[in-house]
Amino acid sequence: MERTKWDETSDVERDTRQGAAANLAATAPGPHSRAMTAFSPADEEKRRGVRRMKATATGLLLFVALVYVLAKWGAHEGAGPWAGYVAAAAEAGMVGALADWFAVTALFRRPLGLPIPHTAIIPTKKDQLGISLGEFVGENFLSEEVVRQRLRAVGIGSRLGAWLAEPEHADRVTAELAAALRGALTVLRDSDVQAVVGEAITRRADAQEIAPGIGKMLEKIVADGGHKRVVDLIVARAHDWLVLHDDEILDAVQGGAPGWTPRYVDRKVGERVYKELLRFVTEMRDAPSHPARGALDRFLTDFAGDLQSDTDTRARVERLKVDVLGRGEVQELIASAWTAVRSMIVAAAEDERSELRLRVRASLLSLGARMAQDPKLQAKVDSWVEGAAVYVVTTYRKEITSLITDTVAGWDAEHTTRKIEAHIGRDLQFIRINGTVVGSLAGLLIYVVSRAFGA
Questions:
Q1: Whether pLDDT at 30 is above 50
Q2: For FRET with 395, which of 44, 83, 155, 220 sits at 20 to 30 Å CA-CA?
């Protein structure tokens, strides 16, 4: 009864049009168009519900029309005054039903297929509705004041602190951070990182003179006596080396002697030189106040001063720095250092009991406990979150609202209409039913009042 020639097309025409639209949607680009041309099982169930409500509303219209005809016939046949009341109520009910049918139908299509102005609102005004919806969202949901009020009411700082203070939540965050760190280190190419690190170190070293810094450090080390252990180590190793390589020293002395000296003289001289050298190193090793140690202290002190103030010494150090940084061995050292560091971090991130993950977990628990109890820290976190959210909203509001308008603009008008009708059409059919009932009651009331005043 509902599918009249002025309300809907025939089933054959509808199926043909849906098939063509589906083919067009399958070839059209963009996910939004596909989303609005595809009907899910839930959508189909809603459409069946709409058709049932349409049949009910139309059936009620036909019922009051039948009542009107019978009441008029009864009045004509002298059925009594009651027939006039029934006819008035039925007549007003028909008017209300038709008016609401027109209003509901005009939302989705042109009633009776006629080009009546301000009808088929959704398919013809789809883009304007999308623009209006975007503006509405931008003004009422993406304003700075609204965002701040909502975030302030949520109390993110205290909630986040209470959440992080739970051990299982801290474990989860730690695991996610470890996974993110592993992913980032895996994605990064070693050659790129090595190039960046090497270039950064080289640029930093070229931009800053290192001699004064080395001089200050050396001066402090000598003043604190920090170099004495190094001297002790060197002297001890020198003594051990002399003991093990006496023949080599004797051969070196004899090899440097003139050819005209007797061999036994060369040997005696070599033995004497070896003994004196061994005695000197032994005394220097065993006597902390040995004069040679004092001379070394004075040399290091003077050298530290020259590194800070002597122009020639500083220039020589800078040239040495450039030469060292330019060597391939140094760049290889940087590359190998990064590889070692990356492997160490990845291994620590994968190991649940590693010191890195345990420290991160402990830090998260401590931070959560502080955030849950410290109002100042909560206020600071809330301020950070509000500032970040407001920045995103105010900076990208146009892009966010354009997502709505562009998405709506990309929808197919006919299928958008059908999908919207499937979702809200059932409620709209109640408007038709209510119009019939309210119209009937209003017509009856008007008729009663008219009769009461003798109209």
A1: no
A2: 155
